[in-house]
Amino acid sequence: MHIVIYGTGGVGGYFGARLAQAGNKVTFIARGKHLEAIQKNGLQLKSPKGDYLVFPANATANIADVTDIDLILVCVKTWQLEAAAIEINRVLSEKTIVISLLNGVNNTDALSAIINKKHILGGLCKVVSKIEDFGIINHLSFEPTIIIGELDNVKTERALLLEKLFLNAGITTKLAENIQTEIWSKFLFISTISAIGALTRATIGEMIASPTIKELMHKTAAEIVAVAKAKGVHLSDKLVEQQFKIIESQPYNTTSSLQRDIMEGKPSELEAQNGTVVKMGIELGIPTPVNSFIYHCLLPQENKARSEKTKLN
Questions:
Q1: N-terminal to C-terminal alpha carbon distance within the chain
Q2: pTM of the complete model beyond 0.90
Q3: Where do the domains of the chain lie, and which CATH numbers do they carry?
Q4: N vs C: which end of the chain shows fewer Cβ within 10 Å?
């Protein structure tokens, strides 16, 4: 199978390397010095589950150069999704499947506004990884997992084929009974830890150790559950408890990609996470005071980062 990894960061780099290791043809979309390093030295994966070097690595900055694509895994940041969808739409064939592994609950809608829904499956992933240096991906923690599902939750032949594809690459994989519930469950986890981590500049271990911050995290999660239920998404009453067990099991020094981006002065997924909770809360009449406080405290930094990014471009 020919797989394109659109966005070779921590997520795309990890899963793309594992799929290449399993013998699939993988093309990596990357930019700048990261692309140059991959083209020259290959893509190096460092992981407690085993290191691997994809060499030589098929890598390009332009997906228009790539043909005969079976699967595209979209692994950019949420604020880059619309531009990515426009480029992806130009190279689709009848057989091409597109799956977003991004954080957030609106990614399928964003894709389907540009790409015919027949190409799209719902998806999400769980992994803590980052670009350590140009051409080097470091998997830090969490069992790397991919969850997929048709938008109508039917277990189609292509969905079963993809499940087998990921499992054969040694990736923990789940074919969802309800992909929207799975996406919202991941959204609850990531939105509970990420922005508050950026606001406090603290690791997960440090935040959990503070009773006050932990209480704020619980309130953040409760607001997300309330918004989801108002949207008609069924989340188990035990979900918050289950997610906090996962949060508390993470290595003490774990930080999220959103947190690292904000702390480094880069544009982040703030709008797609807590910003989305606030906006949906307003639309649905659900109070979200904690999410609103966190979001608006970070918004000036986010706007500054985006302004500087625009100037550089």
A1: 35
A2: yes
A3: 2-177 (3.40.50.720), 181-312 (1.10.1040.10)
A4: C
